[in-house]
Design a protein that fits this description.
It is a single chain. By secondary structure, the chain is of the alpha/beta class. A hairpin with a 4-residue loop joins strand 5 and strand 6. Helix 2 crosses helix 4 and helix 7 packs across helix 8. The two termini are 16 Å apart. The relative contact order is 0.15.
């Protein structure tokens, strides 16, 4: 069975870079990143590997909602300048980079979904909790810094919802990290309680007459924002990739 290790390039690199004493030392960063990749490959023993990087084009999410990810810190200048050489060094070691037009997450989701659809297994190396919406049993998420697979049971307990309800939860409560708005006046606790009772966003909106007037009014007035937030949070799994699995084979 094909096993594809998909590394969220900037998620891994920026965290390693942030821990460096000298942020301008690209040689040290290159060595640490190569060491991390070797460790990941030795542990997971994949047949294929790809590092997926964010691109410079404006995301479709940003066009849809201009405040999306507003206020995010820009990439440090030294890192931005050093990335092309780092990607070349990775390629020289047989590690292929896949450059997204804008956000890496959609490309990661597409790669993983396509592979498991053909009977393969995908391991995504990232701390991004939004990737937890990929619920196929052959897609797992590895936290390199904690050295463990993402604990989905712990995530569900923290949020108060099941993994399958993650998108509905974000539609209601929003996602402050990505500046996804959700519904005004509906926080994480309220969203979790509503989904515990009504199970899904669709059921909830079919049952507004069973809620208190104040809460029903918030939900009715926020219906369009909930729909927008759901769309912003949902990963795309059909992005054009223009590459073959053979290009990602290791060794």
């Amino acid at each position: 069975m094909n096993k594809l290790l998909i590394i969220d390039g900037l998620n891994l690199t920026r965290r390693i870079h942030a821990a460096q004493p000298d942020e301008a030392d690209m040689a040290a960063l290159e060595n640490r990143l190569l060491g991390a990749c070797r460790k990941l490959i030795a542990f997971h023993a994949p047949s294929h590997c790809a590092l997926v990087w964010d691109g410079d084009q404006e995301s479709w999410r940003k066009r849809l909602y201009p405040d999306y990810k507003k206020g995010r810190k820009p990439m440090p200048e030294a890192l931005a300048a050093g990335l092309p050489a780092i990607k070349q060094a990775l390629l020289a070691q047989g590690l292929v980079s896949v450059n997204a037009d804008s956000e890496a997450d959609d490309v990661i989701a597409t790669l993983a979904t396509k592979l498991v659809g053909r009977g393969g297994e995908a391991i995504i190396v990232s701390t991004d909790k939004g990737l937890a919406q990929l619920t196929h049993p052959n897609i797992r998420q590895w936290d390199h810094f904690a050295q463990q697979f993402l604990d989905m049971a712990a995530l569900e307990q923290k949020l108060g919802v099941q993994r399958s309800q993650l998108l509905d939860f974000i539609a209601l409560a929003g996602d402050s990290g990505n500046k996804i708005p959700g519904i005004a006046g509906i926080g994480p606790k309220s969203a979790a309680e509503l989904l515990k009772t009504y199970r899904s966003l669709a059921n909830l909106y079919q049952s507004l007459n069973t809620l208190g007037a104040k809460q029903a009014k918030k939900l009715e007035e926020g219906r369009d924002m909930a729909r927008l937030s759901y769309k912003l949070a949902k990963l795309q799994t059909d992005m054009p990739l223009n590459l073959s699995l053979a290009q990602l084979r290791l060794g």
